[in-house]
Amino acid sequence: QVQLVESGGGLVQAGGSLRLSCAASGRSFSSIDMAWFRQGPGKERELIGARSRSGGNNYYADSVKGRFIISRDTAKNTMYLHMNNLKPEDTAVYYCAAGDIRRGYDYWGQGTQVTVSS
Asked: 91 to each of 63, 86, 94, how far by Cα in Å?
């Protein structure tokens, strides 16, 4: 079992930055793939970034490429989503997930709200 707890969401003006955290327990990052998803109002859930268990491969959706960066602190077993140059269309509930990048993500956090005002 893996438990995930997100934090760091909030209200920010367009052009601003936020850092989301995802604290994981139950498994180490070296044994599981991690990802960030988001779901905006009236939209389907969207994969925005993923990091393999080796830490060597990152994926970013076109909508966030160049603005968002995934990092992790293995000592704290915490993954981060650094969000820069935020836009109103980034407004969503952000979720971290853990599992297998090919078979799917089995474990989900509770989500954290990010609201970007224009």
From this structure: 12, 9, 9
